What we know:
The chain is α/β, with parallel strands linked by helices.
Amino acid sequence: MRKIIIIYSTTDGHTKEICSYLLNIIEKSNNQVTLISIENAEKIDLTIFDKIVIGASIRYGKHSPKVYEFINNNLQILDNKSNAFFSVNVVARKPEKNQADTNPYLKKFLLQIPWKPKQLAVFAGKIDYQKYNIFDRYMIRMIMWVTKGPTHPETNIDFTDWEQVKKFGQLICEM
């Protein structure tokens, strides 16, 4: 039995939902999985885990500063463990931008960090305008208008390819 930690950074909760789905897949392969937010991850001894998985959402083109800080503070441990990183963003709803080597946000992120994750994935996120505050609703609708995405104020669309998430979970088990 391997000990795996999944650390998530989420803006609206969807990345945590994806991580919970991964947890269920990984546990079915007889692994012990810990799920924790990036805000609480500094309290955990990462050396006790066999594998470290980090998932982070994008808001306005960037991952949370806490993701960068966590990576920088734990670079040596991350480099010495089996590891994976995935990004959740709505631009990945487009087939030409839903892979690690084609997603502009992930490519930019990887250039900004010293860590080189061993496995990478990108998952399309979710649009739920009713959940956002007024500023975010306006800004995200404007971004969606420019990128030809959904703009109706009552839109609630999960673009996530759950089969892709399942395959990534299985890959994590095989690492």
